[in-house]
Amino acid sequence: MQNITIKTAALAALIGLNIPAALHAELNTALPGEQEENFALPLNIDLPAQPLAASLRQFAIQSNLSLTVDSALIVDKKSPAVKGRMTRKEAIKRLLDGSGLQGKVEGEKILIQRVTKAEAKD
Predict the structure, then answer these.
(1) Do the strands 50-51 and 78-79 form a parallel or antiparallel pair, or are they unpaired?
(2) Residues 32-43, buried b or exposed e (16+ Cβ, 10 A)?
(3) How confident is the model at residue 22 (pLDDT cuts 50, 70, 90)?
(4) Rounded mean pLDDT of 18-27?
(5) Any idea what DSSP says for residue 104?
(6) Which residues pair with 82 in a beta bridge?
(7) Which H/E stretch holds residue 62?
(8) How far is it, in rounded angstroms, from Cα 97 to Cα 77?
(9) Which helix (DSSP H) or strand (DSSP E) does residue 44 occupy?
(10) Whole-number Å distance between alpha carbons of 98 and 120
């Protein structure tokens, strides 16, 4: 019985030693190095000139991104053909060229929004 009590006390002491370290732990939200490198690799893009909504949908599927866009912003807009090997940011910039819209790639999401006046001057 005494042996069990000593083991229990030793285990409790060891757990107690690790509690302060757990309280000061930081959450690492960075992508693993391999995933981050793969995400930055250029993709082969082959999208015909077509309605912008269709191009954005196809681009999101090809690039494995989640798309967020207000449909009122893209109704009746056309996108140029985009073909070649490029990064996701390059491709979305080409798709939206001349539309008055911009795409912001953040992680695994892409947000389409109007270009602000300040950004249009740059």
Answers:
(1) antiparallel
(2) eeeeeeebeeeb
(3) very low
(4) 50
(5) E
(6) 47
(7) helix 52-63
(8) 11
(9) strand 43-47
(10) 11
